[in-house]
Amino acid sequence: MVHFPFYIARRYLFSKKSTNAINLISAVSVLGVAVATMALVVTLSVFNGFHDMVVSFFTQFDPQLKIVPIEGKTAPADDPILEKIKQLKAIDVVTETVEDQALAIYGDKQAMVMVKGVDDNFDELTHINEILIGDGQFELRAGTLQYGILGARLALKLGTGARFPGFLRIYAPRRDGQLDMMSPQEAFVEDSLMSPGVVFNVKQAKYDSEYIIVPISFARTVFDQQGMVSSLELRLKPDSNFDRVKQEIQQIAGSKYSVLDRYEQQAETFKIMNIEKLLAYVFLTFILLVACFNIIGSLSMLIIEKKDDVKTLRNLGATDRQINRIFQMEGRMISLFGAVIGIALGLLLCFLQEQFGIVKLGESTGDFVVNAYPVSVHALDIVVIFFTVLVVGILAVWYPVRYMSRRLLANADRNELS
After folding, report:
1. Smallest Cα–Cα separation from 35: which of 342, 313, 287?
2. 334, 324, 325, 337: which is closest to 292 by C-alpha?
3. CA max distance for the chain
4. Bridge partners of 93?
5. Which end of the chain is more exposed for a tag (fewer CB within 10 A), N or C?
6. Cα distance between residue 4 and residue 69, in whole Å
7. What pTM does this model have?
8. How far apart are CA 216 and CA 115, in angstroms?
């Protein structure tokens, strides 16, 4: 008797009804749930695709691990804690950085910029060589000359191009002293940079529109930060256990420094993307809920049609609870079939989009970072979607079916008494 409600519900679902409209409404119910499920799969996979794409951009510029002081903007470069971290066997490349805002002027154009001073091994720490544009190479100095590598959008804003003649002037306010209105230029430290013939293009406005990569000695001079660092950037050896090494470094850093991975370095960006994905999930779940209302209509007509069967089932010994479970099981099966069909269709569409780029971002090639919507299917999302459909389907039909089946049984009792 354990499988009795399922057995009857299965027969009711697939058997031909006396009224064809019931079969049609049942098919529409399955189709509605399938379409809503498919929309969930495709939409969340597109969000995953954009998320993974943004991660790949930041990977080219951000280090694997970044150690920053919790209090203040800088810390002594010879801090024993930082020195101990540098000596860890799992560390492959270490770069000291000094980073702050300044004013850049080239010709008659100017812009507020973020000057990032790095060691000469910065190209070994990151994948910056893969995002350089121009006829030069990654180079920060040549003898006494100091080079600055601009973000592509910043170079366009200042009108420098990849290789600019002359000097790019950098101004930073002095750390101490008061502004003399008779000689305001004395309140700033000024220095100049030349071009190595390249710009970088991370394809993220945060970097491309604001950043200039310079030698760390230049940044320390301009910002008066001799012997200081804004952060310590690390790359681990390929065979290192990332989570274990990060935890070890955090234990050494204690409460004085924060150890940030790439996601934590861009916490605001990924937080916004996760919120957008969550909102899309919530809105599409509401659409799924509306689609489940079709199931209620299908079950209502089925209950009316099977009122004579209810009498027969009761005479055969079925309890009122089992009869109620028959119709509840019918709704669950419709949700299940809709979920399976919708997930299958969603995965098929994602595969076609990934292979052929069917849905484009724009009409002209090159207008966007990618030409077609990126997709990335995550197994966890599929599991969440599957159980969401089942839960929403069960909750949507639970009370209406319970109410209608009770009324049917009550009417059957009255008819028997009469």
Report:
1. 342
2. 334
3. 109
4. 235
5. C
6. 66
7. 0.80
8. 10
